[in-house]
Design brief:
Largest sheet: 4 strands, mixed
Distance between the termini: 38 Å
Order of helices and strands: EEHHEEHHHEHHEHEEHHEHHEEEEEE
Number of strands: 15
Strand order of the largest sheet: 6-5-7-15
Shape: globular
Structural class: alpha+beta
Radius of gyration: 21 Å
Helix content: 25-40%
Length: 348
């Protein structure tokens, strides 16, 4: 006797009622990320759809390069496989809508040799409702919401968008963020307006931003005794030679500062924009360092300095992580992509 499990593309698969057998079959068919999945049974899919109160056939977006139809039902299936709870699914839906915006350039992200992944930054009250980690180790392990929401987006990219490793995903090395990358902003610890408010939302709104991040670079700041030194070190670091933002001609580089950095900067009278201006002014490397054989037309060069962003506003600052000032994180981004933010409609 067999039990029915739903798989991509929302068709019924007859599988023996065994966790190991389900996972063997899904893995063999390329429907997983390599980790075990939660079997998306018809009963479970139906229960999640009932909790959402949305039509299963509602189209959220077209996921390239396969031009797969990301219906609410298919998003739910992949969210279940990732281990999401029903309350997590609205974040996944909003992120899917955002990454399908043509300005995000998902086709290029899915097929590039760059190790880019779709990273999620969550803002608003839903962070607390879902226990999304915004603080210590927010880019690491240990939080169900962070791990499963980010993983659900990866499964959607693979199973609906066809972004399988090797073909069409040509990433030369990849990086662990391609399994899952989702974190929240530490709005409570920041003296500045939250990221989503900068993007035109109200503070009381819940929103998710998708950014094409291709690595995380730890910046060790523990030897600097004031915010000026910390920001100067950060500014110098984000303009290193070979930096993908500088060598590819821009993008929206992301800087993760802690609440410690933000409060120290605010106490020194610095707004978020002033911090961005300082980082912009300091970062970059001399044009003279470039070798003769380089395509300069792709680069951003101001007064003989190769930059990683076209203007201060293009540097994205997110306040998150532990409270200390010992570390910041630079996240280089895929230059040909524009981050997108969408509202999250929580479960009633």
């Amino acid at each position: 006797m067999s039990e029915k499990f739903r798989g991509y593309p929302a068709k019924v698969m007859e599988v023996e009622p065994s966790f190991d057998e389900v996972n063997r079959l899904f893995y063999e068919r390329g429907l997983t990320d390599g980790f075990p999945i939660v079997p998306p049974t018809q009963e479970k899919v139906r229960a999640y759809l009932d909790a959402l109160g949305r039509e299963p056939t509602e189209l959220v977006g077209v996921v390239v390069p396969a031009s797969g139809m990301a219906t609410v039902e298919k998003i739910v299936i992949n969210a279940i496989m990732a281990g999401c709870e029903p309350a997590h699914v609205p974040v996944v839906i909003a992120a899917t809508e955002a990454m399908c915006d043509p300005a995000f350039n998902l086709d290029a992200i899915q097929t590039t040799t760059n190790p880019a992944t779709v990273a999620l930054t969550v803002n608003g009250p839903i962070r607390k409702q879902l226990d999304i980690n915004c603080g210590r180790n927010c880019l690491g392990q240990g939080w169900k919401a962070n791990a499963t929401i980010g993983r659900a987006v990866r499964l959607i990219l693979n199973n609906i968008g066809g972004g399988k490793p090797g073909d069409p995903d040509k990433s030369m090395h990849g990086f662990p963020g391609k399994y899952s990358m989702c974190f929240g902003e530490d709005e409570e610890g920041s003296p500045w307006t939250p990221f989503h408010v900068d993007e035109g939302f109200r503070r009381e709104d819940s929103a998710v931003t998708v950014t094409a991040i291709n690595s995380t670079v730890n910046l060790g700041l523990s030897n600097f005794l004031d915010i000026d030194g910390m920001l100067r070190a950060t500014g110098y670091a984000i303009g290193y030679y070979g930096n993908p933002n500088s060598t590819s001609g821009g993008g929206r580089p992301v800087i993760a500062l802690t609440r410690g950095h933000a409060t120290m900067a605010a106490a020194a009278g610095m707004s978020k924009l002033q911090v961005k201006q300082l980082l912009f002014d300091l970062h970059g490397f001399p044009e003279a360092k470039l070798p003769p054989m380089v395509r300069k037309e792709r680069l951003i060069i101001y007064d003989g300095v190769v930059k990683s962003a076209r203007k201060p506003e293009d540097i994205l600052i997110v306040v998150c992580g532990g409270p200390e000032t010992y570390h910041a994180v630079y996240m280089p981004t895929f230059a040909a992509s524009a981050p997108q933010t969408r509202a999250i409609v929580p479960l009633a």
